[in-house]
Write a structure and sequence with these properties.
single chain, 344 residues, mainly alpha, three-stranded antiparallel β-sheet, two-stranded antiparallel ribbon, 72% helix, cytoskeleton, cytoplasm, Microtubule-associated protein 70-1-like
Length: 344
């Protein structure tokens, strides 16, 4: 009995010793784990320090590279940061949009002015045609009403004029000078302005050709009634510097205007229309110059955008290279830490 108890006590003592050894081995393992954890934390701290140093070195390298790259470049081609590039790109895109809108507005204005110019040219042509037809009709009517077989000589505005009868009953003369101007009287001018008004109304659709013909006849009668006041103004202009002069015969005045197939337009009306045409041409030239300036500015902006895009591509390539280098360094650090763990 006593021997059995002694054997149990020995067994328990052996168990206690085994447990103590197990505890001691567990403490050693715990200490080893703590050492490994401490080493890992130290490696993490070293990694953070290396990353900070690497980032500082990268910033310094970028600054040095930017300074070196910008030394030999112009102000427009210098390398700039990405944020600044994006901001300038946004501003330039807004300016380009505004320029496009202004360009479209200028094009619409130019088209409108071109249409107005065509309308004025058409109106001028219609007025000239009306004046030609009215003057020819009045001349033919006056030629029919002039008596035949008369030969006289007369001084008009200081020039001697000789008359000789012809077979058809019309009297012609040749002036000593090669060219004369029509005298500026009130009655021919009023007649031409009336004809111009009639032609403009016919262009607007307010009258027909018959009405214009009637107005022409009435204007011719009015001129016949008013022409006795100015007897010395009976000259008409022709292309070969020949003139036909008519005088009062039996109290019937002659028409002071007779054109032998030449184009004739009122001076006042022609000056007004010519001024409008010149103004339209000037405005068109200004619009063309404005469009050229806008095209040049758009080209400059596009060049700047291309330069900025190239700089952006260079920066992106640099960032990719730096990222790859950092990944390689991190992989090497991990390999070093693993080798240390294996050695420990």
């Amino acid at each position: 009995m006593h021997r059995q108890k002694v054997a149990e006590v020995e067994k328990l003592g052996q168990t206690v010793r085994d447990l103590e050894e197990a505890l001691l081995s567990g403490a050693a393992a715990a200490n080893a784990v703590r050492d490994y954890q401490r080493q890992v934390s130290e490696l993490k701290g070293e990694k953070k320090t290396l990353e900070r140093t690497l980032s500082r070195a990268m910033v310094t390298e970028n600054r040095v590279a930017t300074a070196i790259a910008s030394e030999w470049k112009d102000a427009n081609d210098k390398v700039m940061p990405v944020k600044q590039w994006l901001e300038e790109r946004r501003i330039l895109m807004g300016e380009m949009q505004q320029l496009r809108e202004k360009l479209s507005i200028a094009e619409r204005a130019t088209k409108t002015e071109a249409q107005l110019k065509e309308r004025f040219q058409l109106r001028l042509k219609v007025v000239e045609d009306g004046l030609k037809s009215s003057l020819r009709s009045s001349i033919h009517s006056d030629v029919r009403s002039t008596p035949n077989g008369l030969s006289r000589s007369r001084s008009v505005n200081g020039a001697d004029v000789s008359f000789n009868p012809l077979t058809n009953g019309m009297s012609t003369r040749k002036s000593s000078s090669s060219s004369f101007r029509l005298p500026a009287t009130s009655s021919p001018t009023s007649m031409m302005l009336k004809h111009a008004k009639g032609a403009s109304k016919s262009f607007d659709g307010g009258r027909t050709s018959a009405d214009s013909h009637c107005s022409t006849k009435s204007c011719g009668d009015t001129h016949k009634s008013e022409s006795p006041k100015d007897e010395t103004n009976g000259l008409s202009l022709s292309s070969n510097s020949s003139y036909v002069v008519k005088e009062k015969i039996n109290g019937n005045p002659a028409d002071p205007l007779e054109a032998t197939g030449d184009d004739f337009v009122s001076g006042v009306l022609y000056d007004v229309l010519q001024k409008e045409v010149i103004a339209l041409r000037k405005s068109c030239h200004e619009k063309d110059q404005f469009l050229r300036d806008k095209d040049n500015s758009i080209e400059m902006l596009s060049k700047k955008i291309d330069t900025l895009s190239r700089a952006m591509e260079v920066e992106s390539k640099k960032l990719r290279r730096e990222k790859a280098a950092i990944e390689k360094e991190v992989a090497s650090l991990r390999a070093v830490s693993r080798s240390r763990n294996i050695d420990a």
